[in-house]
Amino acid sequence: MSPASPVTLCDLLGRQQPGMTLEQPFYTDPGIFEEDLNRIVARQWLYVDHVSAIPQPGDVLTYEIAGESIILVRGRDREVRAFFNVCRHRGSRIITKACDHVRTLTCPYHAWTWDLEGKLVKARSMADDFRTEDWPLHACRTRIYQGLVFICLAEEDDDDVIEFDSIADRLDPYIENHCLGAAKVAARKAYPTAGNWKLAVENFRECYHCAPAHPGYTSVNAYVLDGERDQQARSETVAAWAATWEERGVVTRSTGVWGDSYDERQPHAAMRQPIKEGYRTLSRDGRPVAPLMGRLIDWDGGETLMVFGPLFYIYLAGDHAALFRFTPVHATHTDVEVTWLVNGDAREGEDYDEERLTWMWDVTTIEDTRIIGDNQLGVNSRRYRPGRYSTRERATTNFVEWYKRRMGDQL
Ligand code: FES
Ligand SMILES: [Fe+2]
Q1: Which protein residue has the closest C-alpha to ligand 1 atom 1?
Q2: Domain extent listing, the chain
Q3: CA–CA separation, 271 vs 225, rounded Å?
Q4: What is the tens place of the pLDDT at every residue in 89-104?
Q5: What is the pTM (predicted TM-score) of this model?
């Protein structure tokens, strides 16, 4: 069914059973993919990059998402701004090829030129009543949070978009001591994934698959096998660990995580849990892979998962952060990018080693890329029918139920 008509989408949503995976077209249909972009992706705060990607005035990058190209540029006043890569003359793309520094933003078509703050400074041969101040670049909503740049494609007055501050206020206690604004990018890797974005998100939000599919990850994260064997014993371990660290001022509480209960517009959450007895960080042997981050004072052996809506997740260990950005590309393709941050003054080769730092998430994400691709191939089959989620896929079920509500609400 392409393009998706509202009636058909309505029928499909109506057919969906709770606790079951989605009907095939939600994972395969280009028309529904377009609706996903309009109804969901364009109304979320989306992580783009760490501020250190454009450190100097004139440094620039572009990010393609939901059919848009967004320019991120640092102005002469050192502020980071985002603009739609759309010329105000006749609509051409302005930045058309890879480029990391500009003096001005000049359209290659007829050379209208904007300054780094988005003000039109040159347009040749225009009528006398043309006023350059009436033609700034289209600004894109932007927020810098803990050194991370977020954008939102929706108009300023779209009240279906959550105020970013309400996410920040809830998540601050879990992230602020890591001081990510002063961190540096130690590694960055791309994982092109041959699956619909929802299959990638569903996979990321459950660990039912961890024991069979991720031997390395499972060897590091005790919760995987603890949860399979004895949930009660696991709860006691977590409670004892939390009691020790809360006393020392470390936040170990969870907030809204598996229920994703905070705000229907962009569910967000955080949780911290112990990694494994004797493990200080998420490394192969549990030994640190970099210096403690920010204002942290000790190794609590914990890992924090933070959720910023469906497309951005952070894992925080004591000595590094791993950022997971999902970019839907087309109905059966998603770009996953993982960025590793360490303390800003850490030196490669002395304080950290890229292979040790990236081992767990690199191996795990490569495995995920494979299983998501296999998942998509099976879902493409004539015989695919929705299947039933397990009790260990609660965050995935919550995501799918949320997705259906968001798509249905806007019909
Ligand atoms: S379309 Fe950009 S200057 Fe004409
Ligand atoms: Fe996985």
Answers
A1: 90
A2: 47-152, 169-409
A3: 18
A4: 999 999 999 999 999 9
A5: 0.95
Ligand having the closest approach to the CA of 93: 1
Q: Residue length, the chain? A: 411
Q: Is the dihedral of CA 367, 369, 370, 371 positive or negative?
A: positive
Single-letter amino acid, residue 282: L
- State which residues have CB under 5 angstroms from ligand 2, the bound ion: 368
Q: How far is 347 from 225, CA to CA, in rounded Å?
A: 35
Distance CA 170, CA 161 (A): 17
Nearest bound ligand to CA 137? 1
Write out the CATH class of domain 169-409.
Answer: alpha beta
**What is the pLDDT at residue 284?**
96
384/30 Cα distance (integer angstroms) = 18
Two tokens at 147?
Answer: 């050194």
Q: For a ligand 1 pocket test, name from 110, 124, 132, 135 the mutation site with the most ligand atoms within 8 angstroms of its C-beta.
A: 110
The confidence score (pLDDT) of residue 26 equals 98
Question: In this predicted model, what pLDDT tens digit does every residue of 300-349 receive, in sequence order?
Answer: 999 999 999 999 999 999 999 999 999 999 999 999 999 999 999 999 99
- Ligand 1 close to Cβ of residue 385 (< 6 A): no
Q: Whose CA is nearest to atom 3 of ligand 1?
A: 110
Topology agreement, domain 47-152 and domain 169-409: no
CA of 203 from ligand 2 middle (Å) equals 6
Fold for the domain defined by 47-152: Rieske Iron-sulfur Protein (2.102.10)
Nearest Cα residue to atom 4 of ligand 1: 110
